[in-house]
């Protein structure tokens, strides 16, 4: 049986990490992998997580199974963090999942049970795991225009024209904020136009919320999805705690289904729990428990929000200094988009040859589509990167 297996393509980002490790140059810059890094290049454990872990170690009396859907305190606290009061809680069903990826996978499996003919509409470009999982599950897939290569902003007219072709019951995958890989995001008025269009077509939003708090703030980053939740009968939300709580390896995520009415809650919740049962049974609890401890304890929550805000402002200031250094070197405003983009990533718009030259001649490592992880920079490397970008002719 095993000899029937064929090699799988190597993960491009993991390949890039390996090349970076093997590069002997001191001045190399890693803008590849999607984790937050501080000025020293470290991905720290957040203070509130450390405190909660200590408290948990002292207070936890059992490691017995929790609940198939996850700890209700976790799902309730996350529903509140994500949706605020945009929708009444009797319309919500939720499961804890292994990371945001687990939530995306479960959401797609739910679609497969309920409406296997639904086409899943993805932004072009999007996080490569989206199409990869959808294809693996055999669901129909379509793309909508999203990134304007010229302005490096959102091609909103193209997006609307393409999404106008979505059928009733199709799923439209939208990034809640901090679009990966481009960094270009919808404005709130644009979210409202998207809501109008979805109302008209009957297509259902499926929101990937992996970076809440990394863009404009915790509430600001959820404003678009809250607007959709307040206006549309149904939506799915897959959220990750990997980035905003810095607990990547704990695998902490949630899938929330918003139903048209409270009567549907029971059957939706049963189906979500059923999917957990089929795929891994009980979801991981450690990270989820830390998150619910932090969100429900005012002092821990305040500390977490303060540290998250510092992370956000650090990325924003790196964006601003990179944009202004590029303005100085190029004598033009054509890199102004870097300060407009939000989140960890920006697609700078380099050709594959320029990305290669950045690596070969300057020790700058970014993904082949020219996605840069802004958090990989610090005060010293910003001018080095700016010079390299100009040198290779971007
Ligand atoms: N969605 C997007 C857009 C992401 O960038 C990521 C993380 N790279 C995820 C979902 C999932 O993250 P995780 O499974 O690590 O929680």
Automatic annotation (TrEMBL):
Q: Name one GO molecular function term.
A: pyridoxal phosphate binding
- Kindly list the biological process annotations in GO that this record carries: L-phenylalanine biosynthetic process from chorismate via phenylpyruvate
- Domain annotation Aminotransferase class I/classII large: ranges: 28-389
Protein keywords: Aminotransferase, Pyridoxal phosphate, Transferase
Is Transferase among the key words of this record?
A: yes
Q: State its cofactor.
A: pyridoxal 5'-phosphate
Query: Please, which domain of life does this record's source organism belong to?
Result: Bacteria
SUPFAM superfamilies, A to Z: PLP-dependent transferases
Q: Which Pfam families is this protein grouped with?
A: Aminotran_1_2
Q: Which GO terms describe its cellular component?
A: cytosol
Describe the subunit structure. Homodimer.
Report the sequence similarity comment from the record. Answer: Belongs to the class-I pyridoxal-phosphate-dependent aminotransferase family.
Name of the protein described by the UniProt record: Aspartate/tyrosine/aromatic aminotransferase
Which organism does this record belong to? Pseudorhodobacter turbinis
